[in-house]
Amino acid sequence: QVQLVESGGGLVQAGGSLRLSCAASGRTFNMYVMAWFRQAPGKEREFVTSISSSGSSTDYADSVKGRFTISRDNAKNMVYLQMNGLKPEDTAVYYCAARLILVNKYNYWGQGTQVTVSS
User: Fold this and answer.
1) How buried is residue 70: exposed, middle or buried, by Cβ count under 10 Å (0-12/13-18/19+)?
2) What are the distances in angstroms from CA 109 to CA 13, 20, 101, 112?
3) How confident is the model at residue 1 (pLDDT cuts 50, 70, 90)?
């Protein structure tokens, strides 16, 4: 199992930047695909980005391509989300998620961190 704890959320003006961090417990972190999801008020949780277990492959939602960057440090059991060019529509609770390499479903989730972008 893995436990996830997010940090780094906050209030930022449109056009600004934030860096989210996700700390993972456990000794098999490099066996997990990691991702960020977000949920805005009144909306479904949506996929933002993911990164392969080695960090060699990433995937992004169209809405964040070119603005957000996911990275990981397997030596530190950390995942990061660098968010640049933030827009008010990026306002949401951001969740870190994990799944084992051969499992299709993300079944480990953090508690979430609030990101608010003011116009």
Assistant:
1) buried
2) 27, 15, 16, 8
3) confident
Please check whether residue 100 is in contact with residue 31, taking contact to mean a CB–CB distance below 8 angstroms. Answer: yes
Residue 26's pLDDT band, with cuts at 50, 70 and 90, is confident
For 30, phi and psi rounded to 5 degrees?
Answer: -75, 5
Distances (CA, A) of 17 to 83, 97, 117: 5, 21, 10
The DSSP annotation for 33-89 comes to: EEEEEEE-TTS--EEEEEE-SSSS-EEE-TTTTTTEEEEEETTTTEEEEEE-S--GG
Contacts of 43 (CB under 8 A, 6+ apart): 92
